[in-house]
Amino acid sequence: MNTRKIEILVGLFVAFGVAAFAVLALKVANSGISGSGETYTLNAKFENIGSLKTRAPIKVGGVVVGRVDGISIHPQEFVPVVAMSIDADYECQFSDTTSVSILTSGVLGEQYLGISPVIASESAKQTCLGNEVTDTSSDLDDLFGVQSKALKDGDLVTDTKSALVLEELIGQFLFNQGSE
Amino acid sequence: MIDFFQSIGHNVLSRFASLGRATRMLLGALISVPDFRKGPGLLIRQLYMVGHQSLLIIMVSGLFIGMVLALQGYTVLVGYGAEDSLGPLVALSLLRELGPVVTALLFAGRAGSALTAEIGLMKATEQLSSLEMMAIDPLRRIISPRFWAGFISMPLLALIFSAVAIIGAHLVGVDWLGVDSGSFWSIMQSQVSFEKDILNGMIKSFVFALVVTWIALYKGYDCVPTSEGISKATTETVVHSSLAVLGFDFLLTAVMFSG
């Protein structure tokens, strides 16, 4: 067999291998490409995180906006603190009254974080982005004398709902039954 | 009694001596990169023998393993109403384990045994010594191109194996059993991570490539130059490299995926 034919066949073989790699990287896996966007970090304290894992999705109304970056224990209060890395497009969009809850997808599904967003007022957005606030007359918040802020990198979300733990639910149910 | 201790000592020493010879051969093959001034012809020819000619068996077994995985996985998952998870089940088991391991086992049987037999016969017919007589280093001329060909082709073969197997699983799962095509791919994409699964799988297959090619070349290079010796060396190649692949697979899995 002459050299040219061998070289063509080897070229085909290598091209085939590279194509398989491309298929696996692009079609089968995700985070190599899409997960590298700009993000910002929010923290949230929970009483109990259930079986939440790092890399669990963070969803707003079912749409993934970020991933859980890390889970640690608060050094003084001994409650879990979840670091959430969220798409930078949403920085300064959520008000600090936004609540975060740990939810479960499906019966056997894994747990994820659901954000119920409260949209930050225009003046809070501008303050958060570092701009001068010029016109505050249109803000509803000021009518009630409440100053809400927009969430930016490193902020702590205070309004959180913990995971439902089956044993606690059963315990509560039995306790209620007993007191009747 | 003394004979008993002597036999232990003899065994241990000869094991270490053969390990030393194998390491010297590997280092020799690694240092003497194939001579590119004479063109990459030697390496290309070996890539053809080792890589391209293993393509068919790898693709056919990949296709069937993918189809069987999909069939078996479906019958279990459908009981929980979780047949949509067929995609990640197939993709993760292929990329993490079956792709690298089954490719390495097939490669040991298909290409490793051929390498051993070829080099063993070269030794038996004194071709290797004649090369040395002509001041051509057999490590450089014979061993090194074969080593690099194995090291390059096996990861490529493992990737092809996984890709073909996933296509096979799609064929059975989606086209035959009726899993939704959209959820097959999208759940697979959300579960499979590029760094953790695909790259770790590739690291595995590079390690297996090193181990299998090394064992195959050493067994041929070090065989007893008789027809019986060659047959023994070929058998040992397949047995030892299969066992080494499975052992290393456990170690690598423990390091990569247990944490």
From TrEMBL, chain A:
Molecular functions per Gene Ontology: phospholipid binding; phospholipid transporter activity
Top-level taxon: Bacteria
Organism: Pseudoalteromonas holothuriae
Location of the Mce/MlaD domain: 39-117
Recorded coiled-coil stretches: none
Designated name of the protein: Intermembrane phospholipid transport system binding protein MlaD
Annotated gene: mlaD
TrEMBL record, chain B:
Molecular-function annotations in GO: phospholipid transporter activity
Claim: Lipid biosynthesis is one of the keywords in the record: no
Membrane topology: Multi-pass membrane protein
Regions that span the bilayer: 54-74, 86-108, 147-172, 198-217, 238-257
UniProt keywords, alphabetically: Cell inner membrane, Cell membrane, Membrane, Transmembrane, Transmembrane helix, Transport
InterPro entries: ABC_MlaE_roteobac, MlaE_Permease, Permease_MalE
Cell location: Cell inner membrane
Function: Part of the ABC transporter complex MlaFEDB, which is involved in a phospholipid transport pathway that maintains lipid asymmetry in the outer membrane by retrograde trafficking of phospholipids from the outer membrane to the inner membrane. Probably responsible for the translocation of the substrate across the membrane.
Protein name as annotated: Intermembrane phospholipid transport system permease protein MlaE
Naturally occurring in which organism (per UniProt): Pseudoalteromonas holothuriae
